[in-house]
Amino acid sequence: MTKAITVSGLHKSFGRTRALEGLDLDVESGEVHGFLGPNGSGKSTTIRVLLGLLRADSGAVQVLGRDPWTDAVEIHRRIAYVPGDVTLWRNLSGGEVIDLYGRLRGGLDARRRAELIDRFELDPTKKGRTYSKGNRQKVALVAAFASDVDLLILDEPTSGLDPLMEEVFQSCVAEERDRGRTVLLSSHILSEVEELCDRVSIIRKGRTVESGSLADLRHLTRTSVSAELAGPPDGLAALPGVHDLEVRGNRVRLQVDTDRLDAVLRSLTDSGVRSLTSTPPTLEELFLRHYQKDATASAGAVAP
Amino acid sequence: MSSTSSAFSAFAVRPAAARQLAGTGTLLRLALRRDRLLIPVWIAVNALMVLSMPGTLDSLYGTPAERADLVRQMETNSSLRAMTGPVFGDSLGALTAWRAGVYAAALAAVMSLLIVVRHTRDEEESGRQELVASGTVGRRAPLTAALLTAAVADAALALLLAAGLSGQGATGAVAFALGVAGTGMLFATAAAVLAQLTESARLARGLTAGLLGAGFVLRAAGDSATADGSSPLTWLSPLGWQENLRPFAAERWWVLLLIAGAALLQGAVAYELTGRRDLGMSFLPTRPGPATGRLGTAGALAWRLQRGGLLGWSIGFLLAGLVYGGMTEGAADLVGDNEQARRIIERMGGQAQLTDAFVASMTGMLGLVAALYVVGAVLRLTGEETSGRAEPVLACAVGRLRWAAGHLVIAFGGAVWILLLAGAGYALAYGKDPGGVLGACLVQVPAVWVIGGAAVLLHGLLPRAAVAAAWGAAGAVLLLGWVGPALDLPRSVLDLSPFGHLPKVPGAEMSWGPLVVLCLIAAVLVAAGLAALRRRDMTT
């Protein structure tokens, strides 16, 4: 499988602010790759480097096998980009902007354009300033999905879309994947990422902290288990990998590292299980674990 | 406590009025905070220009005899009158008012219109007003705060001018300061009206600046026709009112009433309009556009974005050419029999026939104004970039050079086009020597291009500072060209402006050397700017 995007050791500073400090990112051709991170962690900076709008201070960056800084135009023929905050020209209609972006990329599928306008319920005759935020996003989304490109770079593309349109967006991304196109999706909507993405990269403070398939990442995290037992539980606290143990009479709630699940289940069945629910970690939990590292670290520093 | 209860009672007595203006004080503080650099710079430039005048004039025309001589010359020198207005007395104060009055008033007008549009239509267009208006902010509070901000700036300017000129006579100083500040408020309220009518801040600014330009052309035409500012054309122009106040020369105080009355009337219209419309909407509503577009290149997009502005400039330059062309014949007649006037105008226009010299100074003025066009057109690049609209375009298969090229062709080609139109209008109204007139217009092009090239370089190197720096450079060149020659500034200072190196055709020998050098400088500036643009990060 070839790589659509490879980034390794990417550094980028703005004056004294260090936006990216050794970021790594690998996107395989044909996959939908989730790109996650808190606000200000460097997602948009990375995307601007991938688009050749910013020049990397150091590190290796390749998009579709080329250097985005020197070969920007050649790469852009095969890329469609949707920013998180679309600004339109006040005196151009949405339809004009869609066609402009399409032609600047080297062609637009007219039938697909009409179909997308219909599905997104967009009025293409309105002019720039009169669109709401969600409708401005739709203009850029229609232009991107109707273009004949190999790679879609979407930077929080659904901000402002209503749930119905969010669903249309998700089916559009699924269709793109089915056609063999690659999608880099930066998003804060975790259900969207969970639904669409084959693999995700999580970044924090300009560094990649986690990267892999959702299954891989889940494996690294905790499953929550709650059970009602026949008798009081025994020896759970001593098991390795058990966290946040809560025992109330015969009821047990706990978190367990997913690769230690076997021992916990054995211990529970020893006490006799009346009912059991086990929830795999959601992306949200996975996410919060990384994001909250700062908070716990600083709290730990203050506490004696 | 007492202020709370009095606020309550005011609320009870005049609830409607209080609600309309709620939050004005906070908005005024916000506006002054945002403009804490802009306003002092405008005031300082204006005050420096005016307050340096008495000293300079004193060194030029030190004795009463010299000054009386100057007054006699001005009575017969219509082209100099077109630039500065007539002179009404031979005191230093009166000469200062003559030399600086029109420009001080025009600068105050530009400052005021920029302030008002910036805090009204700009805020609505950007969407910031929506969040502000959701607070306890009355419907008319933003407009009131914007007008008050302009009033604060104009009042501060007036205080500085009155204090600085009081040595020349307190009465005249007050009249001069009030005339300048009044003209400022006249254009502040005009901008307030136009900001209600248009949906775009750019258009509101453009239309108000167009009014100011029309005022300048009308006053220039009127003043070249009569020696005492009494022409109806002069009275049609607000800049003519300021001059007819006659500071330091038997002030006509009633003219201030005219200025104040007109400003109040315009303010009332703006208030009436702002109470009747929806936030963000205008009285000239946006029509729906086509569902499919024909735009397909970065160049076509640039043309689409700039064509409206270019049309406005084209109309303005054609009209200015027609007006100045119509004045040219009479100008030579009036000046014909006065030896000293001859010498002055020859100094301004070069060693040549008087009519030719008049043509040269008028086309020189048009060239200076064309520099403003080229800076505005080049800075569209900066506007597109900082607004975030350039980013998705550059993420398409469009290189930075192609993206910039469209705007630059319009900027540099447009400068040639508007000067050609002015020349055509001039030649048509003048009726003689079309080749010489067109040549006098086109000879301005290399100097205009140098200013445009400087703007390209600034955009390439310092995108964040480019707007202020490029307008600053254009403004400095404009001031040098307008006030420089008659002040006998040292050659080395005048030489800083590219316009100082142009041959004063028709009349003077045509010399290609400086033109070629200026074109080369412009080319180097543009090339360096584009090279820098290719190398740097795009800003967002």
UniProtKB/TrEMBL annotation, chain A:
- GO function terms (MF aspect): ATP binding
Species of the source: Streptomyces composti
Which InterPro entries does the UniProt record give? AAA+_ATPase, ABC_transporter-like_ATP-bd, ABC_transporter-like_CS, ABC_transporter_ATP-binding, DrrA1/2-like_C, P-loop_NTPase
Give the membrane topology, semicolon-separated if more than one.
Peripheral membrane protein
Keywords for the protein's UniProt record, in alphabetical order: Antibiotic resistance, ATP-binding, Nucleotide-binding, Transport
Report the principal subcellular site.
Answer: membrane
- Protein's name according to its UniProt entry: ABC transporter ATP-binding protein
SMART domains, alphabetized: AAA
Where does it reside? Answer: Cell membrane
Q: Which family does it belong to?
A: Belongs to the ABC transporter superfamily.
ABC transporter domain residues are: 5-230
TrEMBL record, chain B:
Q: Supply the alphabetized keyword list.
A: Membrane, Transmembrane, Transmembrane helix
Question: Where does the chain cross the membrane?
Answer: 37-57, 100-120, 141-165, 171-194, 206-222, 253-273, 310-327, 357-379, 408-429, 435-458, 465-484, 512-533
Q: Please indicate which superkingdom the organism of origin belongs to.
A: Bacteria
Asked if NAD is a keyword of the record, the answer is no
Recorded protein name is: ABC transporter permease
Q: Which organism is it from?
A: Streptomyces composti
